[in-house]
Design a protein that fits this description.
The structure is a single chain. The protein has about 650 residues and is α+β, with helices and mostly antiparallel strands. It has nine helices and 31 strands. Strands 17, 19, 20, 21, 22, 23, 24 and 25 form an eight-stranded antiparallel beta sheet that branches. Helix 1 runs parallel beside helix 7 and helix 6 packs across helix 7.
Length: about 650
Amino acid sequence: MKTIAAVLLLVACAQAINVRNLKPLRVFPSKINPTYTGAYWDHIKSSQVIKPEVYPGFKKGLKPQPAYAGISLKNHINSRITGGEQATHGQFPWQALISMDNSYVCGGSLISDTWVLTAGHCGYQFSTFVIILGAQDAFDNSEDGRQVFQTRDVTVHEDYDPDTINNDISLLRLPKSAQVTQYVNIIALPPRSMQGDDLVGQKLTVSGWGKQSDSASGIGEFLNYVTMPVMTNEECSNTFGDVITPSKICTDTTGGHSSCNGDSGGPLILQGSDGRYVEVGIVSFGASAGCEKGYPDAFTRVTSFLDWIETNSGISVRDYKQFLSIPCSNLDRLCNYFFLLIQNYILSQEIVRLQFTSVTQAVIMKTAIVLVLLISLSQGLKLRKHESDPQPRQGLQKLEILEEPASKESSDEKPEPYITGGEVATRGQFPWAVFIQIDNSYICAGALISDEWVLTAAECTYGFAMFQIYIGAQNWQDDEVDRIIATTTNRIAHGDFDPNTFKNDIALIKLTHRVGFNQYIQPVALPTHSMADVDFTGYNATALGWGVTSDNDTAINTDLRYAPLTVISESECQYSWGDNIGLSNLCTNALDGKSTCSGDNGGPLVSDDNILIGVQSFVNSNGCQLGVASVFTKVTHYLDWIEANSDIKIGQ
């Protein structure tokens, strides 16, 4: 054992431990002891789609769950979300808040870095899911540690029955890996050895943002939890009849301690003797009579679906008795945290099956903590906060000007520059960028592509008549030297532009007079026909515009701003946008809050060699700072159209 400990320490010294960027429909069967009539089942079905709880803005090759699955670094459960307790931030780090089609709310649980487990009725007949991890306050978009994802990748159990609510389970796949932090972690799935355990008498905990009373009009602001004992399925059947099958778990809600509207899909967890939490149930349904009436809650029994989870996610279910037990007290967060790092490191080196004694573990733990702290100091190790990742944002930005603070002393805060996370451009840095005022009411951006043509988005011309073009401007409100303001009604939008899907979102505006070039006014280079097949994935590019400075702003900026972005693949973009994305689009990532936003519509996306490759088309309607890809019209797809509708000749 001493040798093993020494080897581990030597290996750890040689390879610094990588601390990464640790970056509810509820179904109500209707009556108590119901008569199984057609009308009854119709009522069950209609009850699955509750009135919207409005949520404001917001494969294969088996991979085992990590050893740290089911670990919470927060001191747990007092006992007693109807009739429950408010959770502390990070107490249930696997908890997911899910918004479906921007209208309904469910809970869920993170079961790997890319998979979220929820109820079948939370995925059934929905298409777009916004998943928030690391949240405690549902409505605080600036909350530390939250990670936001958007996906259309949903797998509902193939035998899910919306009438009987059988097989009420589904999986959501994240577009990229979630980062494990003190606020985000994976919940352990139950081992197969638990498949014969009915859990009767066990006290289990359910968590969620659901209604906190029958009289509440919407979901709760804060994550709540409640602990309830498991009752027999026979007792439960006295309430719900043969809806209750062996693949369900029922809990006793005496005293009004219950899950409620908005909690559906959330995890029902059991704490093991080693402190690890295991998800044994998924919130499925309760009595339509109300959440505080004392009728049972029903959950999908996870052990009945381990094979299905494994087949559809590639996650291998493990018996956690194989893993090292944690030699720290529940209150010793530092010890727990660094033990998880060491344990994960050991797992990555495939040493997990070594059976350490508790004494040896304690020696390794104490030494490893010192080692990790030393490595942290020597390599600047730090835990970074992850800034919180649709329907296309419809409509242009109104012409409202952002008022700057009178002085630095008068305002302690300054909005992050938008283009989000970008920089203020110097005058002449992007001499092809133009500011477009539309019918004296709305604004867009565009690019000068010749001495009389401006390229912009079709949405910037669709249904409008008058365009005032500011050419050579940096601050469009200032009376800058050598800039030109041209007014025109001449515009050509693509004939197949669709204002609903934003397909063919490209337009030309013709100036009434040819402009002369100077240091502040120059045309941008168009791509050649030989570039038509380039997909630009991985290209570094720059987006420009005068758009708003944050999701909270309603007014544009006066200064031109820019942000360096990276073009992502079509398939990666489709994780967020689905069929909205095609060969005629380009997408850029939105890392570190860098993105385009309202008011940047029509603005240019240029490559590092200053070639115009994209025209800003649309962003996420839930907000520009959520990490969702920005979408551009791909210029190379429309070279023939540009030539046919202007006097511009494009190189081969």
